[in-house]
Amino acid sequence: MARLVFVLVAAALLPVSAAGAQQKPVVVIDPGHDLRANGETEPIGPGSSTRKIKDGGGTSGVVSGRREAELNLRVGLRLRALLERAGVTVVMTRTRTAATSMGNIARARIANRADAALFLRIHADGSTDATARGTHTLYPALRRGWTDDVYAESKRAARVVQGSLQGALGFADRGLHERSDFTGFNWADVPVILVEMGFMTNPTEDRLLATSAYQRRAALGLCRGTLRFIGRPAGSCN
Ligand SMILES: [Zn+2]
To answer: Taking the model in full, what pTM does it have?
Structure first.
């Protein structure tokens, strides 16, 4: 009887684990910006005559004095650890803040080459209005030939990840926004979103985001949202 049970259990488990091994998902984490801005231009989409600069450099903390590029990276590295522990393969667009920013076509190509289940771009916001606050998530607007292949899944990812990230940070919910002008969206052939965790120009949010406790909250929220989006239990984030 014990032997029969073993055979039955093995038969039930084998196909599942074999399929799981084949389908180990890849997530590409893109911590926004880098040490230096990049004033070169690139077309905003394949075949476009409209060009934008590669990277304006990002914002910085009004209280902490910290650069956005460094905050994005810290959260990105924490998120990598969480996702890898949950069985996800992670590819980073960068692991240091040490160079001139590579631009957005290059970032999208990393995600395309990895055939990412999600291309997750991590940013923090800046505004001339110090009272502007809250978390929001951007995703590509629908444009035939550029984003029609990733629009629906990107929008679904944005909804799921915004909910988890906003819940983890407890900042105001600014919701979702479609963008047609983001080079890194228009060149992506995989589902893509860009999270703006909070405003570094808001004294309260900057002060909180500068702490390791809030960087961990952000990484946890992003991990849970990512796993929910790819159909894995969000409880694996810890
Ligand atoms: Zn940014």
So the answer is: 0.90
